[in-house]
Amino acid sequence: MTTAMRGTSAEGTATDLPRLLPASQQPQEWHAHAARYGGRVPFRGAPGRLIPDVREAGLTGRGGAAFPVHRKLEAVLDAATSRRKTAVVIGNGAESEPASDKDATLLWLAPHLVLDGLQLAAEAVGADQAILYTHADRRHDVGRRLEQALTQRRQAGVERVTVQLAQAPPRFLSGQETAVVNHLGGGPSIPTFIPPRPSERGFDGAPTLVQNAETLAHLALIARHGPRWFRQVGTAAEPGSTLCTIRRADGTARVTEVPLGMPLRDLLGPVTLDGAVLIGGYHGTWLPVAQAVQLTLDNHALQAAGARVGAGIVITLPPDSCGIAETARVVRYLALESAGQCGPCLNGLPRMAAALAELAGARPRRQARADLERWAGLVTGRGACHHPDGTARLVRSALVTFAAELDRHGRGRCSGTNPRPFLPVPRAQARTEEDWT
Ligand SMILES: Cc1cc2nc3c(=O)[nH]c(=O)nc-3n(C[C@H](O)[C@H](O)[C@H](O)COP(=O)(O)O)c2cc1C
Ligand code: SF4
């Protein structure tokens, strides 16, 4: 499920992609990793020393929010210094978004790059503990692969900080930062209210850095090749490459590494202009293909269209699927995944799901659409986490992009002729205590 965008030699030149994934698409054992990137982890010798390079590189988080990585490193190091409490680092490979496959692919093919990044992040914030948190993988046994990688690294003598492996429950919220910390601390896998932020007081009360698995892999390459090398692809405002999960209308899916700022026209390949594309996954935005092909894959360009890169998920809707019905299935799933601890999320999301289900059927009440718009406004910004905001974004974009389809449903018709669901949605399940722990 991976592909190389351009050919690359064993070492690769600065602008060659892939940088993170092996061009051979074969899992990289330690000896192959050492041959490609050098057999040592480029430690800097003291906490804080890597941070200026990360700032200059302009690396942002690849877990969805695109937050500047150097600011998180600084915050954790500052908290650890001022509180005289040793920091903890967590690599987030939960990939709880059902449509995404990029972190599992990265961990499967290039585990040592992520583990190099975890060690370097630990040094940067002066941590003495690192945890790599991954989901029970849908396709591969990532946990077993990581155990093997850790054994190889111990034998090679490159591990400074002991790395523990931990498993994320298969729920949408299990990858959310405070849910990760909560779960690893023995609590349920649900978000907690902030403040305090994990950077202040996280795992075991320590200042905690939570960084996406792909972000850590980029960090490892910045430490090795420097910020100027990193900036040789991407845009000036959003440098570097990013992993994307591309799902095409024909049902095929692949993970690919592309420069930020890549024209969506090139990423999407041959598409019908009157179709729709979902950018950024289930907290993302539906756009008409005709609009998407004018844009580039970076937050600056996408923002103008109300979209964002998120975790790099790009999905083309098949012409014989109904966008409203597909969104209704996803929103029902998202509503059931609410942790149920904030009123607007607990009450608003199921109502939105029900209204959307009505709109997906024949001759919905006019009021259903107005209700949906109102609830999308009411839940936004009202949760302890961004789950309601992301769900509202998806719903609003569906109402706009599929406006003609909504009118069709009002007349008792639907352009979706394929009864088979398209977007991957785990079997909807209500929350139980067991699921979250
Ligand atoms: C509902 C929800 C689910 C999330 N799931 C994940 C996830 O599976 N993996 C991940 O890395 N980040 C996930 N995030 C983002 C994390 O909260 C956090 O911002 C991220 O792990 C930080 O890493 P980064 O700065 O390197 O991107 C999720 C956020 C939300 C609101
Ligand atoms: S906003 Fe929703 S998902 Fe997030 S913590 Fe509150 S109830 Fe849970």
Sequence-ordered SSE layout with sheet pairings:
Layout (H helix, E strand, L loop, with lengths): L1 E2 L26 H8 L13 H7 L11 H15 L4 E6 L8 H8 L1 H15 L3 E7 L6 H15 L6 E6 L8 H8 L23 E5 H13 L1 H4 L10 E7 L5 E7 L4 H5 L7 E4 L5 E4 H4 L6 H5 L9 E4 L6 H15 L5 H18 L5 H14 L7 H15 L1 H8 L22 H4 L1
The structure holds flavin mononucleotide and iron/sulfur cluster.
Iron/sulfur cluster (SF4) binds next to helix 14 and helix 16.
Report on the biggest sheet: 6 strands, mixed
**Ligand roster:** flavin mononucleotide, iron/sulfur cluster
Relative strand content: 5-15%
CATH class of the largest domain: Alpha Beta
Structural class, from secondary structure content? alpha/beta
If you average the pLDDT, what whole number results?
A: 92
Give the % helix: 40-55%
Compute the CA-based radius of gyration.
22 Å
Q: What is the strand arrangement across the widest sheet?
A: 1-7-6-10-8-9
Q: Name the CATH homologous superfamily of the largest domain.
A: NADH-ubiquinone oxidoreductase 51kDa subunit
Alpha-carbon distance between the two ends: 31 Å
Overview in brief:
By secondary structure, the chain is α/β, with parallel strands linked by helices. It is built from 18 helices and 10 strands. The chain has 3 domains: 14-230, 3-Layer(aba) Sandwich (Rossmann fold), CATH 3.40.50; 241-316, Ubiquitin-like (UB roll) (Roll); 323-436, NADH-ubiquinone oxidoreductase 51kDa subunit, iron-sulphur binding domain (de novo design (two linked rop proteins)), CATH 1.20.1440.230.
